[in-house]
Amino acid sequence: MNFRQLGQIFFLLIFSIQPIFSQENKGSELPSYFSLLNYQYDQWTSDNGLPNNSIRDIIQDHEGFLWFATYNGLCKFDGYDIETFNFSNTSEIKSSGFLSLYHSIQDSSLWIGTNGQGLLHYKNEKFTSYLPENVSNGVITAIADKGKELLLGTREGVLVFDKDSKSYKNADHPEIAKITVTDIYIIGNNIYITSQANGIFHFDQSLNLLGKFMPEVEWNTVYGISDGTILFGGTEGLFALKNSKLENYTLNGTPNVEITNIFQDKEGKIFLGTDSGVIIYDGESSYIVAENIGLNTGVIESIIEDFEGNFWFGTNDQGLVRFKKGNFINITKYQGLPSNSIHAIISGNKNIYIATENGVAVFNSGEISLIENTIGIDVRDLYLENDNSIWLASYSGLIHIENGKVTKIINSENGFKSDKIRDLIPYDNNSLLVGTVEGLYTYDFNSGDVSLLSSDSDLADSWILNLYRDNKGIVWVSTNGNGLYKIENKTISKIQNDNFNDGNIVFRATELSDGTLIFGSILGLFKIQNNKPVFINENGGILKQTIFQIIKGKKGDLWFTTNNGLLKINEKELINYIHGNITSLPSAKLFSKSDGMLSNEIASLSIGLADNNGGAWVSTSRGISIIYPAQIQQNLAPPAIHIEEVILDGENIDYANTIKINPGRHRLEVKFTGISLSQPDKVMYEYMLEGYDEDWILGENNRSAFYNDIPEGEYKFKVRALNADGIQSSNVAQFEIQKDEYFYKKGWFFIIVVAVIILLILFIQRGRVNVLKRRNRVLEQMVGQRTSDINFQKEQISKHRDELLQLNSVKDKLFSIISHDLRGPLNSFGSVLRLLASGNLSADELKMLAGNLSRDVVKIQSFLENLLQWAKSQMNGIIPKPESVNLRLMTDSCAQLLDMDLKFKNITFVNNIDERITVRYDKNMLKTVLRNLLNNSVKFTNEGGEINVMANVKSGVLWLCVKDNGIGMNQETIDKLFSKENTFTNEGTFQEAGTGLGLNLCKDFVEAQEGRIDVCSKEKEGTQICFSIPDFSI
């Protein structure tokens, strides 16, 4: 995180003094001389968001948040951000000075002692101020819970605060009336009060004085430890109350310094805050955490342990310190290294040799010594003939060390083109293979000759990065910008393919137990297969990052040094993944600075080490970090999850109740935090909007979720957190959302629209009837007036009466058809609209409904067209208007209208009409006949069937036929098809409805143009309907 300054600390300078605390873990792979080195600290100051570097008190509340009392504000901390409350942003706070904190488990609230404002109470995210009458007593230096009352230490005595009445009173005892209280501790029936200049007071619960001790000492703190001992800290050191006597309490190895704070952790270790650091006592020995190990704390004001086992120190002027056990042991210049810039770590028979930019260090059983004659030499690699004979690849040439003394220096003056030697390995029994920044050389042990390996190859003047010999004796050479080479039987060849060029810088290689050779590179991990490089891809991308070196651990683990930290993968698992036996790498875990490494930056060209105890040694930019798999800490504490803000269209909104969103386009943002104070940067989040998201969304470590334009409906947002070890939060944080729909999508609006349409139809029909009635009245008047021509008038009246009867018949039939056949599709429309309005449809369901609606629209259009044509023919008669029409194009046009139904039922449509055929026919009538015949064929043809249209000339007449292989008809059904008295219809193969008008209309139109219509059908075999066209040309 950018607000932290991480520094690695070590309990002891174990290489210059004997450790005063050592506890070997039996069965553990961790060597005993490392047992105290895997602790780290992080420090926050005003540069990282604190309002003040003086932390007077620290408390952790029931939700996992840390609270800090400072002189410039009260701070709330979730591991990421520091939120400060003071008089400038909180109206209930009148003073920004805070001195003491107390968390009440009983009601999950926080009591805050201020510097002049008395008590503040924080509950349910609200502050309440309780100011005492005597403002001088408003400086609350200590808070202790006495049940229904709080005992408050002030600078002018002790106050008693009643929780129920919210009132103050002075403690009823003269001894403590005007003292400056520094701490109060209550246990059982005993109350202990320390003061600045009046000693220690021991009372019972009724404030009867039981004892007073050492008034000449300034006392800072009091604390009861697990064995029942009451400890007191002051300017004269640490004391304990025994047998009503105060005695000096000496811990083994504890210096006699001022004690400012006392704390005991869950394991029983005692932490003593002093005026210059922290002393930790484990029951046997003491050790100091202070400047001697790189941590500047100054005076310690407060110490606590959080739910995850991290320790937090509040200091007087150095800010906040987190002190925790990490997964790494770290070695730096503090322990005796000549430099923190490490190039190679090589294991010998007895020692571990460390090549640095300032010489070579030798590590043996926890002690570091230097090879004096190498100081000042930038050493890049080592080759050990034995522990007494060492060859150094350095930027001063090739150097031989024997018995600690330099015996040979071979450089540009006697063989090499450049003094800068990068790497070296044995070439054969008599020589070394030496990589330089200007070529690859051999050095002969016997003759001392230096020879360029190949003057005519690309390696002649290449910058050699690394050399590696596999189990077959093949040497692999990686260069800086000139590719990868192999040397087999002293023959040099280049490794390349289309996806692998010289720009991909290759680092170090490792051979797996199955013989697979893998390399780290700037583009990720690759293997050699058939002499070609093949990248090993992984969905999570962990193998696509820059990989420098692969260290084979002695416990079956592979350690990959990367540009993001140290990656651990089980070797057998990786082999199975490479060979396709598994599809993921569940053992993969990336360790970084927050796990205890000195830095995420691992030296790219450095050489790490796997020691015999299972540890992996790597070189970081700040020294050596070592990890042992059996010592890796697992954080089993589930992170607490909290929703911090809900932002709708840029404005914060209250999410305590259901959030109501108006119709329209909106942007919703939810901010949340998961509290895991050990490694907050590795907390992962999963969230979902129930009712919108189908499953949990992995947001990684992003603490925000965004939603744009969610549909109308009811939703529930949920979020949960996982800590660095995958432990999930025990609960989910959630809130509800309700988004309203537009008024025109509501059911009542649809009902109104349908009602208006029906009323409009009735109004039009009523108007038509009224017109006819008025005409009838006029005729009746004409009869009375024209008595001279009564017979003619009777005929006129009879004629108009017949027209009226026919019109009424048309009306009755029209309303019968409308009520029967239009109601179903309209009801279907209503149901679909209500489903759409509910917002509970998936994408597939929406697609299906869209298809259904489209087919319904086509059917209603066809129905209305037939209805219009039939009504028109009934009222006005049929008057054809022939014109020239291409029969094939007309057929295709009509079939196109049914394309969706054809696809829906998977019906094959074949148009066999000769494209040269032209007919003289009423175009609209022809379209109506063809559309109805094709529609019937589709309706009564099974899924996967076939429809054929053909035109043939018989006896000088053109016959157009529509043939299907559908369900067919019996003779009884055929006889009913053209009934004038009663319309006849059947449901289709997919329950398609009909009106019974189509074929009657077709017959009328065909006969009106001197044609004839014939039907041929057989049940379960299909139907063929043909009609004749007299006027045609080919």
Automatic annotation (TrEMBL):
Its EC number is 2.7.13.3. It holds the Pfam family HATPase_c. PROSITE patterns: HIS_KIN. It is an enzyme of class 2 (transferase). Keywords: Membrane, Phosphoprotein, Transmembrane, Transmembrane helix. InterPro entries: HATPase_C_sf, HATPase_dom, His_kinase_dom, HisK_dim/P_dom, HisK_dim/P_sf, Ig-like_fold, Quinoprotein_ADH-like_sf, Reg_prop. One of its GO terms (molecular function) is phosphorelay sensor kinase activity. The chain crosses the membrane at residues 747-765. It catalyses: ATP + protein L-histidine = ADP + protein N-phospho-L-histidine. Residues 817-1033 form the Histidine kinase domain. This is histidine kinase. It comes from Marinigracilibium pacificum. The lineage of its organism: Bacteria, Pseudomonadati, Bacteroidota, Cytophagia, Cytophagales.
